[in-house]
Amino acid sequence: MLAVHESEDFEQLNVLRSSRRQMIGIEDLSLVFPSADGDVHALSHINLSIKQGDFVSFIGPSGCGKTTLLRVIADLEKQTEGNILVDGTSPEDARLNRLYGYVFQAPALLPWRSIYDNCALPMEISGRSGPHQAEQIDKYLKMVGLQDFHNKYPWQLSGGMQQRASIARALCIEPELLLMDEPFGALDEITRDHMNMELLQIWQQTQKTVVFVTHSIAEAVLLSTHIVVMSPRPGRIAKIIQSPLPRVKTLALRDDERFHALAGEIRDALAQDHAID
Amino acid sequence: MLAVHESEDFEQLNVLRSSRRQMIGIEDLSLVFPSADGDVHALSHINLSIKQGDFVSFIGPSGCGKTTLLRVIADLEKQTEGNILVDGTSPEDARLNRLYGYVFQAPALLPWRSIYDNCALPMEISGRSGPHQAEQIDKYLKMVGLQDFHNKYPWQLSGGMQQRASIARALCIEPELLLMDEPFGALDEITRDHMNMELLQIWQQTQKTVVFVTHSIAEAVLLSTHIVVMSPRPGRIAKIIQSPLPRVKTLALRDDERFHALAGEIRDALAQDHAID
Amino acid sequence: MSSTISTKPWFALLSFIIGIVVIWYLAALLMNGKQLINTLERKKQDWTYTQVASQAYQIPRPMLPAPHQVAAQLNKSVFQVAIDSKRSLIYHTGITLQSTLLGFVLGAILGILIAVGIVHNRTLESSLMPWVIASQTIPILAIAPIIVVVLGALNMTGVFPKAVISMYLSFFPVTIAMVKGLRSSDVMHMELMRTYNATQTQLFWKLRWFSAQPYLFSSLKVAIAAALVGAVVAELPTGAQGGLGSRLLSGSYYGQTEQIWAALLMAALLGSVLVFVVGLAERVILSQRGNANA
Amino acid sequence: MRKSMLNMLAFLVFSLQFLLAFNLTDGSYLQSPSYLFLLVAALISAIRLMTEMTAYVDAKPNAGSGLKAVVPSIFAMMLVMLWQSLVLGFAVSPVLLPSIKSIVISFVNNLPLLWADFQQTYLKAVLAGYVLGCSSGFIVAQLASKSLFLRNGLLPLGNFMSAIPIVGIAPIMVMWFGFDWQSKAAVIVVMTFFPMFINTLAGLQSVDHLHQDLLHTYGASSNQRFVKCQFFYALPFVFNALKLNSTLALIGAIVAEFFGTPIVGMGFRISTEVGRMNMDMVWATILVAALAGSLSYGLLALLEKRLLFWHPSVR
Amino acid sequence: SQPLTLQLKWVTQAQFAGYYVALDKGYYEEAGIDLTIKPGGPDIAPAQVLAGGGADVIVDWLPSALAIREKGLPMVNIAQIYAKSGLMLTCLKSSGIKTPQDFAGHTLGVWFSGNEYPFLSWMSKLGYDTTGGDGVTVLKQGFNVDPLFQGQADCISTMTYNEYGQVLDGGMSDDELVLFKYEDEGVATLEDGLYVLEDALADPAKVELYAKFLKASIKGWEWAAENPQAAGELILEYDDTGAQTEAHQVRMMSEIAKLLGGSPEGIGYLQPEAFERTVSVLLDSEGTPVITQKPEGAYSHLVFDKMNAL
Ligand SMILES: Nc1ncnc2c1ncn2[C@@H]1O[C@H](COP(=O)(O)OP(=O)(O)OP(=O)(O)O)[C@@H](O)[C@H]1O
Ligand SMILES: Nc1ncnc2c1ncn2[C@@H]1O[C@H](COP(=O)(O)OP(=O)(O)OP(=O)(O)O)[C@@H](O)[C@H]1O
Ligand SMILES: Cc1ncc(C[n+]2csc(CCO)c2C)c(N)n1
Ligand SMILES: [Mg+2]
Ligand SMILES: [Mg+2]
């Protein structure tokens, strides 16, 4: 049944998105971490195509390779086998062209820079720190609710605030492609809801492509156009689900029938070959 | 309306639990962190009574003082004003009597001890490492799904596994009172569900008192007899909600009407005076 | 990663050693050549560059003996004489080693004790710490003779005074690192121990001691090198009673440059071996406790 | 109430013995050992005063540096008292150990001489050698952090070289660079290079993986990586080396002067006056060295605190 | 047998051959003395060891002994082994120095650590400022003769029996050098003598012990002076650093033999005239005289007389 479903999905996708260009194309990609006590097959025979404008979520149990796959896309890790194209080029070229912004699982702010200066860092490095740099930073810090914390240092902020700062930092450069690794893990539900809506809005307005890792089924359902369910040992794609929900979303959707149906489908896919380890 | 609701709550509680002894009694407790740029009012005029056998969850936005309140109960922090009694004594005496087990927000395992030895640590220290120590540890490591990892070191485990080990460590000494600070934050949903059910089972079987901090509304609803909603700046109790759900729970409860109603109530309480910052 | 030859540690080391030897020969040629030219001019003799080049590696008191001269001297004093002979460099290395090891052990113990005191007692911390630092600004060679004389007056002679000077140099890095290490315990772990109501002793043996170990070992590596320097220094004021230090000195009195260099290389070799041994102990002990970085 | 009375008493006993120490007649303790009781009482008093002061200062979270210096000062006065009392009381020969009083007197009387020595040794040799040694260590470490080849070659050699005792290097440097301060600076360069090299390298390599990845995603050049990130990670390590080197450099210069100098300099003074049995002058010079060393250490620590305001060890 | 410790002024070398010969030949043993010889070195101030109780008898030079005595350490010369001074200034002919009057503007290497007193007296007698200016530039010479070879000094201090030989071994010949012996310049001071603490002399038993020690030592010196070759070889046996060469030690011994004798009383007798001459050299220096007043009781013939009475 899974196989049927999968192929169905793919067909659908192809029809739907044929007009948009492919942003990420992954073909039969595998990645093995060599290690003293046996190799770790972090990714095994991954096939995935993401079109420009998609919002794709990766979901799956801890250790199934979500982060690793995102890192391959960002040229932070090299596959052992298979091919990957990012915006038609190699991940390395995409990185050097500063195509994407990456939000790490942890905030990764530089402790010797104020929040403002942390956001300015990517612009400084790409030499884009022109006159409207300040505007840009102001705008996104405000969006994440940190307008009053420009001059604070990261260690003066709570964990959740730090994570929001790091999101603002990635948004500031307005990249074509947003890669986000559990960006909202450290936030409480209300803040999380708020951030979810802000992210949706940016995505809807700018037609960016977003690749998003999450542990939360609800979040995946709420945000994504496509949900990639992964399973571990070896890390592989168990199922790709296209969301039947409209692109324009509100929090009220959470009470929608389709929302619950989709969440149930994901939960079932996850429960399959999940065992506590 | 809130005031009415609160007083109603308190009455209800008193009626319900009159037969059980008070485990934690907090009266008009405040805590201020002095700091160079203005004092931080982490807790302000907290009143709370927790009876033996209760399962109480603290929920609230980041920085509202959940951890701080738990730390006051554990004698890791001293209040600036007000009174607190833990099992009829001061928090310090309770700590000296090894009354409680504490699960930190992070696993806090000692990297130079194997998982088994980490669990043995509290027993070693209290001099209770008798013959059935091994049995006890085996039992709880099995419960959290780590039966095959006795001899591994913490850094050989994934984050979620570490967190589970730290829970097993706190359970091993079977304390009267369990203080848990977002114990399941690092787990994926499936594992989290499993851990929730295990915790519920222990609590139902042993009639322990549990004080539990969480960010997840669903988790709070599923587990608790009482939910304490907190709000920030200054950190205070916004609402105390008694759960109408039965003490014996299953995951199926999540589709129950009352479940959704309760979740909605909590969400509303949270949304009140919540502002992103 | 392709493991080409140039990423191999031995290859880099070998290249460096070869490079150094080449530079050494060139420097010897320049320095000794200049000296040779001076001598010849003073004697009002004619000279040519080829003549200078051919004699530069043979002059009697070279400013810089060539590698092969030092090697010959090393070979002579290590392999060509009985080990227990006073002309054997091994014999002198043994003497220095004795006071180094004794001084190192004393210094490590003293360093740990001071650190434990400082960490557990606020009064000790605020009173002692500045003076521990000040103690190291006192030039040891200046007070070494006084130490030797005073200890001599107290009837302590032989290795002990030398070991005391070694100890003086080696306790410092251990103290500094141990204070840092004993304090480096994770706050969360400290609080965990607090929830268990652990005593100070339990806290020390179950937590602090372990978090201090990595600091301890890296400081022991510094300390054993310092102890060696101390042992060598201490051999100057204890009289020419053997040891690498007195070899250095007597080589210096009698203008035997090769002997100085041989003793120097030997001291450096001894130091490297000692540091290596401590590093080995570190790896064994830290791996026993399952250290991720071991 | 009783506590403050006890503190008063301790203060009195300590002050009394402190004053007495400077007015003892030679050999008092040998003639009447009972005086020793007062000395012991004064020691106990000093310890009590320090304990009380520590508690007092700790209770004040934002105590000024003046208040913080009280306890070490009492400790210093205790040492001074002990030294002075024992030397006078047991009539120790001034050829072995001079009294504190005579050290201070010869310090004051010989200020111009000591200043000249300080200039020669500290302001010329130490500063030049320190700056050269530390900066070259830093630069080479930066190169080595980029090249596995350099690292593989330099690290074992660095260990080897740092095990060479200075007493061996000093005569050679005097032979090569002459008698003046240049040869002392050369000794200091050799002594300070490797601690700085090894520390900086460790610092440059201590960059958090996450931050490394972050800059990688920005496509930062290796210079940008250094300026924006690595440099800050290296700073705490660099300061460790700077502090360690500040004491090493002074010792190195003084020891090197034992092996030949013009007739000025702290090392020259010490070795010459030892030969002349002017131990008070020797200790006066040692005092200068300790002052200079502690002061530069303190200044570096202060600078570190300023620059590393963001580092967990400081904030 | 009674224990006795002798602290030397310098490392084990033929300079101290007499004591080693006496030790080796059992002369001390015969006299009922169990002698320990502590070698010295540049960092060892024998007077300090004496004051600290680390030695009973020390070998020192009279100028530094007198200076230290003025500092308050009551040490007394009980025997003067060397009758003549072996100290000299060795200059390069190429530097243009022919007489002491030519020193001005040149760089002179001098040993400090208590060995500088005769030099300072000499310079002040010649009217040179030693602290720079238009006088001479003084270097604190290290342990060896390298400054001469490396052109860092025009003149260096040498001992006739030791460093001078090294200069020759180093490839310089007599005709490249100009020598100024302190003896010839009239600034000679007494060198190696034996010193003890004053109060020890109040104890007749100690005096007797020292007398026996002196007798055995002198016997050793006489043997050494007659057998320079054997004495040189013997020194090598006792040298713990294993650094000396036979040729150098034998030559040193023959040079030292020239400094020993001379007086009719034999080795060990301190000639009062020689003492006075040293004192006047030291007092002579203007500016910073080494000693400020004529020393009293700085030497004693008590032990020497006792020895003759044994
Ligand atoms: N550098 C590495 N070396 C060896 N194994 C690694 C490395 N990085 C990841 N792994 C392994 O690869 C597998 C996938 O890891 P990854 O971090 O991608 O998981 P994840 O899905 O992101 O999990 P989580 O939800 O916990 O973040 C895991 O089994 C992990 O142990
Ligand atoms: N040691 C401290 N010094 C100063 N302020 C502190 C300290 N610890 C906590 N605070 C402040 O007290 C407030 C409450 O913190 P607390 O950690 O209790 O929040 P929390 O509810 O547990 O948040 P989270 O959900 O992020 O864990 C916060 O504003 C925090 O900044
Ligand atoms: C620092 C120093 N002082 C003196 C000498 C020279 N020296 C060699 S033997 C001797 C006689 C001692 O009785 C003297 C003065 C030196 N080489 N180095
Ligand atoms: Mg991940
Ligand atoms: Mg918290």
Automatic annotation (TrEMBL), chains A, B:
Protein keywords: ATP-binding, Nucleotide-binding, Transport
SMART domains given in the database record: AAA
Claim: DNA damage is one of the keywords in the record: no
Molecular-function GO terms, alphabetical: ATP binding; ATP hydrolysis activity
InterPro entries (UniProt xref): AAA+_ATPase, ABC_transporter-like_ATP-bd, ABC_transporter-like_CS, ABC_transporter_ATP-bind, P-loop_NTPase
Superkingdom, natural source: Bacteria
Domain ABC transporter: 24-257
Family: Belongs to the ABC transporter superfamily.
Protein name as annotated: ABC transporter ATP-binding protein
Annotated organism of origin: Alginatibacterium sediminis
UniProtKB/TrEMBL annotation, chain C:
Keyword terms of this UniProt record: Cell membrane, Membrane, Transmembrane, Transmembrane helix, Transport
GO cellular component terms attached to this protein's record: plasma membrane
Listed GO biological process terms: transmembrane transport
Alphabetized SUPFAM superfamilies for the sequence: MetI-like
Localization: Cell membrane
InterPro entries given in the database record: MetI-like (IPR000515), MetI-like_sf (IPR035906)
TM segment ranges: 12-31, 95-119, 131-154, 160-179, 215-240, 260-281
Xref: Pfam families: BPD_transp_1
Major subcellular site: membrane
Membrane topology listed for this record: Multi-pass membrane protein
Domain ABC transmembrane type-1, first and last residues per copy: 89-282
Family stated for the protein in its record: Belongs to the binding-protein-dependent transport system permease family.
Protein name as it appears in the record: ABC transporter permease subunit
From TrEMBL, chain D:
Every ABC transmembrane type-1 domain range: 137-307
Keywords for the protein's UniProt record, in alphabetical order: Cell membrane, Membrane, Transmembrane, Transmembrane helix, Transport
Top-rank lineage group of the source organism: Bacteria
One biological process term in Gene Ontology: transmembrane transport
Database matches in CDD domains: TM_PBP2
Transmembrane residue ranges: 37-57, 69-92, 122-145, 157-179, 185-204, 248-270, 282-303
Membrane listed as a keyword: yes
Subcellular location field: Cell membrane
Membrane association type: Multi-pass membrane protein
Cellular compartments per GO CC: plasma membrane
Official protein name in the record: ABC transporter permease
Gene source species: Alginatibacterium sediminis
